[in-house]
Design goal:
This protein is α+β, with helices and mostly antiparallel strands. 29% of the residues lie in helices and 15% in strands. The strands form 2 sheets. A 3-stranded antiparallel beta sheet has the order 3-2-4, with no helix packed on it. It has a two-stranded antiparallel ribbon with strand order 1-5.
């Protein structure tokens, strides 16, 4: 949830499209590793993957959250997860995120 500044972008895709997107993420991650052999970020590969994956979102509906608008989403299921991205930081932003664990 953004308290101040631009909100997180959420893509609403079908479950089958989520599966395809995650498979593409894995394939591209292997082809264009984000980290080199010294564990240093390879920004060229990261941007290339991001550009290729963004084309996969053309059939999804993208919504940018308003201030004080939040979501709860699934991060444990690879093929039924929330596709989201942080917005362009063109002004100051205050973001609140909670990571909750299921208690058994």
């Amino acid at each position: 949830m953004s308290l101040i500044g631009p909100g997180t972008l959420i893509a609403k895709c079908s479950n089958s499209h989520n599966k395809e997107l995650m498979e593409n993420t894995i394939t591209l991650g292997k082809k264009y590793p984000r980290r080199d052999e010294n564990h240093k970020l390879n920004t060229k590969n990261a941007k290339l993957c991001q550009k290729k994956l963004s084309k996969c979102l053309d059939s999804c509906t993208v919504h940018q959250l308003d201030n004080f608008e939040g979501v709860i989403y699934n991060i444990g299921n690879v093929f039924n997860c929330c596709v989201h991205s942080e917005p362009k930081f063109d002004k100051p932003r205050l973001f609140l995120g909670l990571v909750l664990s299921e208690i058994q």
